[in-house]
Design goal:
With 112 residues, the chain is mainly beta. Helices cover 14% and strands 50% of the residues. The chain contains 1 helix and 7 strands; from the N terminus they run αβββββββ. The chain has a 6-stranded antiparallel beta barrel with strand order 2-3-4-7-6-5. The longest helix has 16 residues. The two termini are 23 Å apart. The mean pLDDT is 84.
């Protein structure tokens, strides 16, 4: 699927705006639910991640693969029993280690 120039420009502007804003507003609460994402570069492929915590402006997820900063998509998750679907951009990603010693990744998603 080929994106038009206007869609690519809109995604780029949204990404730049999200990355420029203050990333922590309010407190974080634990989130123990799957976070399902349709990434914009693969819109017909659903990926599921483990949600770790959330705030008013973002989510932290755990994944077994590296996710590049700036990647955008549509995420669906449940917060306080309410299903939410939001456009997200990856603000950061870092390598971590699970309790079993396995290499995993965590990523911060900004809600747009």
């Amino acid at each position: 699927m080929e994106f038009s120039q206007s869609i690519r420009s809109a995604i780029r502007r949204a990404t730049e705006l999200a990355l420029a804003e203050e990333r922590r507003v309010g407190g974080r609460s634990q989130l123990s639910c799957p976070v399902d994402i349709h990434w914009h570069h693969r819109p017909f492929e659903l990926q599921s991640y483990e949600g770790l915590d959330c705030s008013e402006t973002g989510l932290r997820i755990r994944t077994h693969t590296f996710l590049m900063e700036g990647l955008t998509g549509r995420a669906t998750f449940s917060r306080a029993g309410i299903e939410t679907t939001k456009t997200v951009v990856i603000s950061w990603a870092r390598e971590s280690t699970s309790l079993s010693g396995e290499t995993i990744w965590e990523a911060g998603l900004r809600l747009l």
